[in-house]
Structures are given as C-alpha cells and as structure tokens.
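Reminder: ligand-aware prediction takes two inputs, not one.
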Amino acid sequence: MESRKRILITGAAGFLGSHLCDRFIKEDYHVIGMDNLITGDLRNIEHLFSLENFEFYHHDVSNFVHVPGKLDYILHFASPASPIDYLKIPIQTLKVGSLGTHNLLGLALAKGARMLIASTSEVYGDPNINPQPEEYWGNVNPVGPRGVYDEAKRFQEAMTMAYHTYHGVETRIVRIFNTYGPRMRLNDGRVLPAFIGQALRGEPLTMFGDGSQTRSFCYVDDLIEGIYRLLFSDYPSPVNIGNPDEITIREFGEEIIKLTGTDQKLISLPLPTDDPKQRRPDITKAKSILGWEPKVSRSEGLKITYEYFKSLPQELIEKVEH
Ligand code: NAD
Ligand code: UDP
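Here is what comes back for the chain with nicotinamide-adenine-dinucleotide:
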C-alpha cells in the first residue's frame, strides 16, 4: 500500500495547476492531475509523466468525476481564466465553476478529502473600494460579458461554504489576484503575455482604454506558497492571495517596453465592457493567518517571465490566433 498522501489537482495542465503539480511532487505526494485541455497544454506537465507518483486523467470535471482509491486533498483549479478564453467558451466556464465544483465537492465528501477551490478577485467585480478586503461583497454585473466567470466563481464559493456547513467537508477558498509567470500561454489574451508577445514580435502594445485602470501582479511562486499554507491552515473562509503592489496598465506597458528593449509604443484600443477600474488585494488576513506575504518584486518576476517567453520556439511566439 502506498504511504504517500494523495492529491487530485484539476486544471493540472494549465498555468497554475502545473506549478501546483510541481510543488506537491516536490513534497513527495502522489499527484493525480486532471484536465480536459480546453485552455491547458500537456507540455506544462510532460516532465512529470515518467514519475511513478504522478498520473494524469484527461477528463472534463463538469461531468461526473471518478477517482479510484483514497484521496486526501483536492485542489480545484480547472476553469478558463483569461477574459478572452471565458468569453469564447462562456457556457463551459459557467459549468466548470458550478457543476464541476459540485462534482468535486461530492468526491471530497465521499473520500473524506479536504478541498481547496481557486476563486478570484473577480468576485469583487468592478470594486467600489480599494484595496479589497475579504469582507467586501463586490460589484458584479451578472448579465455582462464577464458575468459568466464572476458568477460561476461566486456560486463556487457559495457551494463550497454549503458543503462545509451542511456536510462538514473541510474546505478552503483562495481568492487569487492577477498572477503571472512561466507557462502562461502567450496568446491567452491576458495583459502580460499579450504585451510581451507583442514586444517579441515587434508589434505595438495594445493598451485597452486610456490605461488608467490598475492591477496588482503577483509572481507565481509567491502565489503557490500562499495556497500551500492556506491548504494546511484551519481557516475555511476566503483568503486573498496577491501582491498589493498596484500599477496602472499604462505604467505596466511602459515597464514591459523597457524590459524588452522594444522600439514599439503603446496604442490604445477600446476598453472591454465592465473592465474593473482598480484592483489591489488587502492581504491583512493572509499575513496574520498564514504568515504569508509576497517576496518576489515585479522587476524580478518580470525578468524571469520574459526569459521564459524568449526561450519558447519561434513558431509559438509567432502563433497569435486566439
Ligand atoms: P489556465 O487556463 O492556464 O488553466 C486552467 C486549466 O483548467 C486548463 O488546463 C484547462 O484546460 C483546464 N480546464 C478548464 N475547464 C476544464 C474542465 N471543465 N475540466 C477539466 N479541465 C478544465 O488558467 P490559470 O491561470 O492556471 O487558472 C487556474 C485557476 O485559477 C482557474 O480556476 C482560475 O479561475 C483561477 N485564477 C487564476 C488567476 C490568475 O491570475 N492566473 C486569477 C484568479 C483566479
Ligand atoms: N489589457 C490591455 N491590453 C491587453 C490585454 C489586457 O490593456 O492586450 C488590460 C485589460 O483591459 C485590463 C488589464 O489589462 O484592464 C488586465 O487584463 P487581464 O486580461 O490580464 O486580466 P483581468 O482583466 O482579468 O484582470
């Protein structure tokens, strides 16, 4: 009988899921990755396939989820995550946040597993207060284009709390703020891969609106550490994990121009509907409950990420269709 703890990670072939797989392999877990590859890429986890303590299921978690054997933990990270992805596949996005979460909570209940869900700063919508503490209920347009993602995630949180309260399932909720790093998809439409991809191809950088909207970017290693600590805490209410270093998108574009040395400029395109005007995490809870705060500065994190994108095969850099 295998003595290792067993963890199911959904969205394993995606950006965050693949980094979580690496972390739990490093901690000597038996990792079961699950993904339907709708926005993920097997190249993110191919280095794990030869390991005896890693297995992969190609499965859509919006359908009934079966995993043989014992299960100690479930991390539910399957979901399209970038605005252009979830606008392209809105129904699947709603389903994976709602039906997928329900299936996995059912699995957690059946197996006696602890489950952590990947929620998001998008539950705060276009926030009226800045920074956003966990107590803020948000300002979401349920029928706007982003509603398919935001409401799926709000439902996901509600369903998770209900399983905790009514079925006694051990649950954790992380509200993730914009995170970046190696293994993001160059063409996923999020601002960082968009800007770096454009710089590498010698195209102008497409700033939406006047660039006065803000975001706060967290390097992936910091996020993974925060998630790891939250999973092993005893705190079932939502916790923000993100880097409070807030910047306007215009300034961010200028940083990318400097970093990449491109001679391109920022050009302004229309601001998407309901694009949040400001976003910055209040991380008081993460600090006090988890003893966590980000360690990697934006300049360090951006350098590492740029090196990663530069090292990709040229055909991937050139491939921009969404
Ligand atoms: P990603 O697109 O790189 O990864 C998501 C993965 O989920 C992909 O591999 C995709 O194929 C898989 N997937 C989607 N629907 C599925 C389904 N029905 N069944 C099985 N697999 C499915 O995105 P990411 O940035 O790694 O995001 C991972 C999670 O973190 C998502 O739940 C996202 O909402 C959340 N999140 C991410 C960020 C961020 O900044 N990266 C911010 C907030 C929340
Ligand atoms: N954005 C931009 N140009 C792009 C892609 C995004 O100016 O090519 C802006 C977008 O309008 C938003 C910010 O960058 O204000 C962050 O967008 P992203 O899609 O990365 O994440 P989210 O809006 O979910 O925070």
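The chain has two domains: 6-180+217-241, 191-215+246-276+296-318. Residues 15 and 184 are 5 Å apart (CA to CA). We will return to this case in the review session.
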